[in-house]
Specification:
Elements: H1 2-19, E1 41-44, E2 50-55, E3 59-64, E4 67-72, E5 77-85, H2 90-102, E6 108-118, E7 123-132, E8 138-143, E9 148-156, H3 162-182, E10 184-185
Antiparallel strand pairs: 1-2, 2-10, 3-4, 4-5, 5-9, 6-7, 7-8, 8-9
Amino acid sequence: MLKKTIWIAVILLSLTVVSCKDDVLPKPAGFLRLDYPVAKYVNFENTCPFSFQMNEAAVIKGEKECGFAITYPKMKATIYLTYKPVNNNIDKLLRDAQKLTYEHVIKADDILEQPYLNPEKKVYGMFYQVNGNAATNSQFYVTDSTKHFITGSVYFYTKPNFDSVMPAASYIKNDMQRLMETLKWK
């Protein structure tokens, strides 16, 4: 009986030692690596009091009162541009543009501000990069401070997940900065 008990103890101890391994964990969700072609820019002009360069892969929709939706069908994203004339209300327009950006502070990890000044073309503004799972990753406003005011923001047609949209967000961020840098008032 003692021999049988010892054998059972040895077998149980062996099974315990052999079966102890690291816990099996599920693989984390992966995201596709997306590479986009080098952007080619074309001039955009119409009857609005400004012109700019935009990515030729983008499509402009909804030209209404000089407000536009610049869509990126392959990335499922849209840059919304809004134009407003300045009529002694520059302070209100600036406050509204800043308020729009900082409404995302709840979901944002960080908001980086990049001032933009081009005295030669009389274009002044701010570019905001919103890091984290906010609804928009990039926003901007530009003005000549006397007649014209434009805001722009990008939105993706997906649940905000910064890691998954980061390649597309970076690509479109560059297009938005190009738009700001090439903007000319008429």
